[in-house]
Amino acid sequence: MPHAAARLAVTAVLVTAAAACTGTPPAPQGAAVEVSRGRCGVGWAAPHGGDQRIAVHNVGPVTMEVELVDPATHGVYAEIESLAPAATRAVHLVLARGAYAFTCLPEDSDAETGPAVTVADGPTAGATAIAPVTEDDLGPAVGSYRAHVTAGLAALAVDVATLRTALASGDRERARQAWLVAQMAYNRLGAAYDTFGDTADAIDGLPDGLPAGVRDKDFTGLRRIEYGLWHGEALPSLGALAARLASDVAGLRKDFASSRTDPNDLPLRAHEILENTLQFELTGAADQGGGAGLATMSANLDGTRAVLDAIAPELRPRYAGWTTVEQELSAVQRLVAAQQRGGRWTPVRELSTQDRERLDGALGQLLEDLAPIAAIGEVRRTQ
Amino acid sequence: MSTKRRDFLRGLGAGAAGVAVGGAAGAGVASAMSRPRQASPAAEPTVAFHGVHQAGVVTPAQPHATHVAFDVVAGDRKGLADLFRTITERARFLTAGGVPPEIGIGGPPSDSGVLGPAVPADNLTVTVGVGASLFDDRFGLAAHKPAELTAMPSFPDDHLDPARTHGDLSLQLCADHRDTVLHALRDIARHTRGGMQVRWRLDGFASPPRPAGTPRNLMGFKDGISNLLVTDAAQMDQFVWLPAGAAQPWTAGGSYQVIRQIRMLVEFWDRVGIVEQERIFGRRRDSGAPLDGDHETDAPKFADDPVGEAIPLTSHIRRANPRTPQAEPSRILRRPYNYDSGVDAVGDLDMGLVFVCFQRDPDKQFATIQRRLAGEPLVDYIQPVGGGYFLILPGVRDTADYLGSGLVNLT
């Protein structure tokens, strides 16, 4: 379809305005630029620096991703994902002096980078190009993370066995302590956002959303045992729940060994584990009576540290805030550790206003600074 | 524990950066639609941020407000200074309006998008105060606390809830629209999580005149008829703004803010006869006129009514402002909002007044009035449950200055 191909060119229009002064987005200006498969970025003539809006119109027959890149390093300044035929979308950024090019990544065909253009005016500092993270880049991270989880699951199995023994002993206090060890072992794995699929619900599910709540037959696992331990339920009945838990953990170990970990999960998990902690633990919402929110939070912080350690080789060079994040994570860990006194963790409801605000503030700031890792670490095509 | 987010991301093949770019594309459309406004930038309602005084004190009350008290969690003086700088930077941008910067693939969008791609100023004012608790040993500021700045006392008819009272900082956000207020609060909170945490928050609204004149409170009465004139600079200097040459010179240009969450027991009130209601306030409910007058603007003639035959001696307006030379120094600038905040444990509506006033000395002005009001018949129908005393910081002079600069640099 040569005729159609010519008509369905991808065009980009360069527009600019002094947005900060007028309080409105940059308005259209300047020459139209043609970009298409085989002609990705041709005609982007005389670009200007400063606050720029570049609208890209896909008049081609295939959906493509379009990136604005540094032609020397192929670092990405901005991207348009899934630009469908006939769709127009724009990138908006501050262009510093330097060289730029478009990279087009059409579905089912190779990436191509158009001619480099030079911005000779505008500021000396602008948007920063970030080297895209590929699936291969994250291979070693996935490997080390999986090794960490595999070892953690083995430790969990041991802790659940200890819990069963404690329940069988008839000593409720001993059983509570054993439960806490198992609860922390599981939460060190960072099982946020369905990491372990449906199996996880049987292990760490809450009564929320179950028709009969805490009395629901599908409320099982660590939280169910917690409920029983702190609500006077007979230990033998909890022993049966612990046996089921042991079986579910064994199933999870088997499933995990044969499953694949999506590399995208790791950068996402950098903040998702602690998003869950804030939502369910620091609020007390998940507490079934054990008052173990801060113990669980401590374990979640360990789990986050493990994720960060795994992805650090790829993400540290790409994220200027990495050192800050590591310092903030350590600071939150110190605040949480201070709430364990004489072997007892302060239940969140007993925190003083000042301690609660310090914890909330430190975790909130850490989450803000972890969030960019998910965006930067998102797996991107380069070919 | 939820799978929704992951499914969403995978299903669309779009990460956070993709969403950011989508937002930018939408901006083109909005830009085209808003061009008439762009052609006349003066039409964008804006309250100047820089000045000797902060905005939001003598600024005529915008229709929507939130009053939020924060506790500072920054650990030292430098952290406090960084916090003030950050609040200033955000306030400077939010009150001027503009296009938030694009992050590209480096992170989630820099702005919540609640107000669209170009943030309108919308007459937003950001007004920041400090509470007495900021002057403890955390930041080495104890020697610089003005004597007039104390924690709000509990008055005899108060029912203060500690969780809704006091705070290291007060933040008053007012704008022409509710979404602008909430956008500003989200933005400031997002940029200051490690520096301060919300202690309490109270959303307010200004009712329109019904049908004319001073707006009504939720007891149905016009509230704030007799107020200082914000257009009278001499009156503002006399009653509201802190002078140069005070014992704490860094406070010059500031003001003391009193915030009181006053719940109105509206179900009880609605079961009270109109004559009793009007005698409790001392004004007609329909017109706002004093009980000895015909119009809301009529001045009550207390001197002609020494035993309170027309306007009872215990009525609210007579106790609050007896219009005597002795009472003159206690006048205040009121800037109240109504609030509406759900229901209580017995199913009664939780609504009332965010009483806000400004003055040079909270004890000699607000508290003096409060002492005159002690035991007034109105107290059976209202419950002050929270609030605080705050010192509104001097204004931010220019782009190099920041809130609290005169305080955090003291040695």
Overview of the molecule:
The complex is a heterodimer of chains A (383) and B (411). By secondary structure, chain A is α+β, with helices and mostly antiparallel strands. Chain A has two domains: 10-119, Immunoglobulin-like; 135-376, A middle domain of Talin 1 (Up-down Bundle), CATH 1.20.1420. In chain A, 46% of the residues lie in helices and 16% in strands. Chain A has eleven helices and eleven strands. In chain A, the strands form three sheets. In chain A, strands 4, 5, 7, 8 and 9 form a five-stranded antiparallel sheet that branches. A four-stranded antiparallel sheet of chain A has the order 2-1-3-6, with no helix packed on it. Chain A has a two-stranded antiparallel sheet with strand order 10-11. The longest helix of chain A is centred in the middle third of the chain and has 31 residues, at 139-169. Chain B has 411 residues and is an alpha+beta fold. In chain B, strands 1, 2, 3, 4, 5, 6, 7, 8 and 9 form a nine-stranded antiparallel sheet that branches. In chain B, a hairpin with a 5-residue loop joins strand 7 (337-343) and strand 8 (349-359). In chain B, helix 4 packs antiparallel against helix 5 (178-191). Chain B is globular. Chain B starts with a helix and ends with a helix. Chains A and B meet through helix 2, strand 3, strand 5, strand 6 and helix 8 of A and helix 1, helix 2, helix 3 and strand 4 of B.
Name the assembly state: heterodimer
For the largest beta-sheet of chain B, the strand count, sense and barrel status come to:
9 strands, antiparallel
Separation, N- and C-terminal Cα atoms of chain B:
50 Å
Discrete helix count of chain B: 11
Mean pLDDT of chain A: 88
Unreliable segments of 5+ consecutive residues of chain B = 1-42
Instruction: Specify which chain pair forms the largest interface.
Output: A-B, 60 and 55 residues
The CATH superfamily of the largest domain in chain A is M75 peptidase, HXXE motif
Percentage beta strand of chain A: 15-25%
Question: What helical percentage do the residues of chain B reach?
Answer: 25-40%
Shape of chain B: globular
Overall 3D geometry of chain A?
elongated
Report the order of strands and helices of chain A. Answer: HEHEEEEEEEEHHHHHHHHEEH
Uncertain stretches of chain A: 1-23
Query: What is the total tally of β strands of chain B?
Result: 9
Radius of gyration of chain A equals 26 Å
Radius of gyration of chain B from CA coordinates? 23 Å
